């Protein structure tokens, strides 16, 4: 049975339910299957040996998600070849590609959780009420161990960019 965490977060002050486990620092990063585009899937193993900064957003077409993804795109330039910045949302791959083109985002790999919600359920960020993924940040080392987690308590809040980047830099 899938774990539900009722009231684990809010949307504009109203409680929402997150589906899946609450991951912690030291946990092995769960695998997932997401879409790179309509024909090609990706999983955790596709980024093996890399440090992964995983930025999760409900939808790229909202102000906070837009700003979060743009910020990590800028930060990615200074993190080096051993780091990959992934942005996961339930947006369709077409929408992600269109948004990246319009926003000039070219250093972040966008991945869509629209088909199976595998990422959302495995990382404990699937919002039951909306079938979107909750804003959160995960830093995963080259051996797929979680070294940083930020589950945002309020869906419309921004993450702590400085702490997330510091967690990545500590692994370099």
UniProtKB/TrEMBL annotation:
Catalytic residues as annotated in Swiss-Prot or TrEMBL: 65 (cysteine sulfenic acid (-soh) intermediate)
Reaction(s) catalysed by this chain's protein: a hydroperoxide + [thioredoxin]-dithiol = an alcohol + [thioredoxin]-disulfide + H2O
Record's keyword annotation contains Oxidoreductase: yes
A Pfam family annotated for this UniProt entry: Redoxin
Sequence ranges assigned to domain Thioredoxin in this UniProt record: 23-172
Function in brief: Thiol-specific peroxidase that catalyzes the reduction of hydrogen peroxide and organic hydroperoxides to water and alcohols, respectively. Plays a role in cell protection against oxidative stress by detoxifying peroxides.
Subunit and partners: Homodimer.
Name of the molecule in the record: Thiol peroxidase
Organism of origin: Paenibacillus silvae
Organism taxonomic ancestry: Bacteria, Bacillati, Bacillota, Bacilli, Bacillales
